[in-house]
Design goal:
By secondary structure, this protein is of the alpha/beta class. The chain folds into 2 domains: about 10-205, no CATH class; about 250-300, no CATH class. The chain is about 50% helix and about 15% strand. The protein contains 12 helices and 6 strands. It has helices at about 10-15, 20-30, 50-55, 85-95, 155-165, 170-180, 185, 190-205, 210-265, 270-275, 280-290, 295-300; strands at about 40-45, 60-65, 70-75, 110-120, 130-135, 145-155. A hairpin with a 4-residue loop joins strand 2 and strand 3. The chain starts with 9 loop residues before the first helix and ends with a helix.
Length: about 300
Amino acid sequence: MLPLLDPKNDYIFKRLFAQSPELLSDLINSIRYDQPPITITDILNPNISGEDLHAKEIVLDVLAKDGFGVQYNIEIQVRKQTYWGERSLYYSSRLISEQLESGQSYREMKHVICIHLLDFDLFPEHPEQASWRFELRDQHIPDVVLTKAQQIDILELDKADRLQLAPTALKNWVDLFEHWQEQHIMAQLTHTPVMTVLQSLEQMSQTKEERLRALARERAVWDYNTEIQVAEERGEQRGLEKGLEKGKKAMQTLLRTLIEARFGQPLPDWVLSRLRTATPEQLQQWGISLTRAQRLEDIFEA
């Protein structure tokens, strides 16, 4: 029997839930267990195209709505992207703004709830909390809510696993995403929807086509992450080089000012030339020599 595919692979995640509204409903209700339960009636983007599979810059998500027209966008992410919060807010806002056409009333706008399952700690400074909900509230009186039309739910999976969340359903979902390869933990699952998803995952994992598509998706994401890492490293290197050059120019300017002040005259061309071509180490040594130099030549003899 082939090993199970990773349910955190966003292609596998979408395959598991995009065709099963009842399972998606349970996942949402388990994450938002403090809210009235909902029933997903429509999956709005059930298909995965070849372009989606190989796209490096997107996360495959599941967009759905319940019987009241509330939209839910669910996605799983394994890498913390730069400006992650801004990205989430932008996408959530787009889902809201795209609802209304010209002439429609704001009262026709439906709520949008984005749910992010993260396989990294978004808020490492708060190790005691793994579940978050953001909405528009007053800074001084948090009980005053401007609107619930836009909500972002976040579940930090690794942190939730460490904290051993109390609700059985949610704990079972976390166990699936974090321990799918550990048979002794999978054998302890008791929540029926999670067990159903596990069975689907087992079936998918034995299919050559699904394994190849999952691998293609992993490769696309890996390529994207590598490109980002290389770009960041190049940026850091350019920043370091720029910083060193800026520091060198500051040292040159300071040493020139000190020498002119010491000898009370503009510097000759040969001194300016030496300052321009000097290394930071030479500039530092000349600065020390300046303290005991009796003439210009004494500075540069060290």
